[in-house]
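So, can you check this record?

>
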Amino acid sequence: MIKNLKITTKILIIIVLTALICGTAVGITSYNQSKTTLFTSVGNKFTALLQAQSISLHDYLTLVREDLKLIAANETTIESAKGFIQAWDRISGEAKDVLQKYYIKNNPFPAGEKELFNGGDERFLYNKRHKKYHPWFRRLIKERGYHDIGIFDLKGNLVYSALKEGGFATNFLNGELKDTEVAKIYKNALNEDSQHRLYYAPFTMYGSGNKAPASFIATQILSPKGDLIGIIAFQIPIDRINKIMDISAGLGKTGEIYIVGSDHLMYSNSRFSFEATILEKTVNNKQVNLALAGESGTLIGRDYRNVEVFAFYKPFNFMDKTWALIGEIDIDEVLVPVKKMRDHIIIIVILIVLIVSLIGSFAAKIITNLIDTAIGDIKKLEKGDRGFVIKYNTRNDEIGDIGKALKSFKQSMIRAEKRDQEYLEKLKKARKNAEYANKAKSEFLANMSHELRTPMHAILSFTRFCIKDVAKIIKTKGIDRDIIDEMQLNLGSIEDSGTRLLALINNLLDLEKLESGKKELVIERADIYQVIGQTCQVLKSLIDNKKIKLICDKPEFDTNIDMDKGQIIQVVTNILSNAVKFTPEGKKILISCEEKAANIIVKIEDEGVGIPKAELKDVFDKFIQSSKTKTGSGGTGLGLAICKEIIELHGGKIWAENSDKDGSVFTFTIPKKQKGSKNDGSKT
């Protein structure tokens, strides 16, 4: 399609495409560089924010650990633990039922404010101890921001809880909360080798009734002598961690930073969720998995909302737990400045293409006008006009070169036409002479053949009469035998020469008729295998004299075909007699027939002298003989030429090859049905 366009259009397309490609390349390069720069900038900002959040979180949790150590070793804590455990042991009945009824069910303060109740009748030892120590613990969780503080005895009982929630007074070894994370760290803290060690339980939904997110950190309460008294645990408020993570400054419209635990649950609320996501939302994506595996970095992937984001991930280690600190911002928001720049680049590229197109169109028009002028001059030359003047051959550019070449071409054409005219006259004269000579040759051959045929018949007849007369003389007169023998020999030579001369004449006549198209085939349905057999029988004496073994394979298919039987006999005779003539005594000649599609293929293979490879293509030419056979072998070189004409007149082909046994192979094909015969199936 493009090759059919005019040069003006092609030049304009090339210019526009070049401008478009260059502009697009510059635009893409600028876009990618800006995108990379923007990603780097956003990455640096988020990395800094993520680091700041990590430090804040680390500082807070470190403070919690230090607080726990200090409070566990505090004298008030040690005394209160002893007091609560002693009071617990003196409670008559089920301590859990008694304490939950007194401090939860009958607590005069509403839910969420149960910690405001200090205790009742001091005749009840637990109330007395509670009034003494509870205000200190209540003030501690308020000032430090802890959700709750609990004290366990060595039997698994939560003997004190500042908030008095559902787990208060429950046994964590065999009660309903025995399988919680709190129970696990309690059991770990009971070990004798756990002195001064801290144990952390990750955030879970904790509680026996209305469960809420909770995380615990615990350690032993030791007496001044180092004896284990009990276990103290802080319930770390997840709200505090959530507030640390809940920042929006510098995060844009879609940016957020959150924490994911090793259980793939969010430990902070999503900025974009109206419902709480803490311990409710599972996040299992590439950035979280990489962070939990201890790696830090950035990537483009999907967030928990299945939105494509630019993600920043960092591991955060607390105690023996690893959290994933994740920062994310939507790719669409990150790319807003780049997209604006892309739009500007597109507009600039379009303007450049338009301007270049206008300039290119003007330049292309100038060039193509000159080319059109040159094309017009060429068309004039094509129509035979040689009188016009080429005006642009004086230019110094490529158009000038075209003009100079065109002028030279014009002059060459004038000279060539003059030569051609002269040559044409000579050619006409030569053709006329050739036609005359060819006609004279044909007439000569016809006349000569006719003139030679008649006396030759007479010579042969009289010679035969002489031979017969000589024979009679021998029987009756008794003339000298030697004279008679010599006469017979001479007369025999006359007969042989006459016979050869007659054969030559017949060949010349046949060839002339075949070449001139005067030879007509007499088509009949005949068996080509029988034709071959008849020919072999005719030449049997020659074959037997040379003791040649003739093998003629009988085909297993129908060998009846349309042919001029006499002409095909002549073909087989010529080829087979040559094979006999040039095959040494005692050798073999093989004749075979094959069937291929609508043709019969006949092969005559001998073990004779063969034909030089360079001469194979010429053996069917008139008066041509192989260099291996023409010396002393006789023949005129017309037999194979006649074979070729006869086979081609039948619509077949004939060729010669050398066999593997140093002999030659002559092959010819004949269609089974001749066109126009009653057997070809066509309508005439």
